């Protein structure tokens, strides 16, 4: 492979850095499927639809600046009742939720976006 435009990782430690080393111009994103699943596992079954509705704006935020605001709204709404649902997102994003501005509305790959400075 000569050109990799986007690398979607599952949260495996070291993979984003390795991808940026091998393909310096690649956009590295953390897949949102794993944090979504983990959040749903930690929530009461009857709350899952409500949680999904509030997480959707986080995952589909049009800019990297909008995602933390949407996550704060989600955290305010559910952090007290189900604090464990916040952990998967904080772990995936290092306490800094971001959206992929290059793919607004994309499902499954918008949690983290970085670009190597090389």
From TrEMBL:
Keywords: DNA recombination, DNA-binding, Transposable element, Transposition. GO terms for biological process: DNA transposition. It comes from the Bacteria. GO terms for molecular function: DNA binding; transposase activity. Required for the transposition of the insertion element. PANTHER family: MUTATOR FAMILY TRANSPOSASE, TRANSPOSASE FOR INSERTION SEQUENCE ELEMENT IS1081. This is Mutator family transposase.
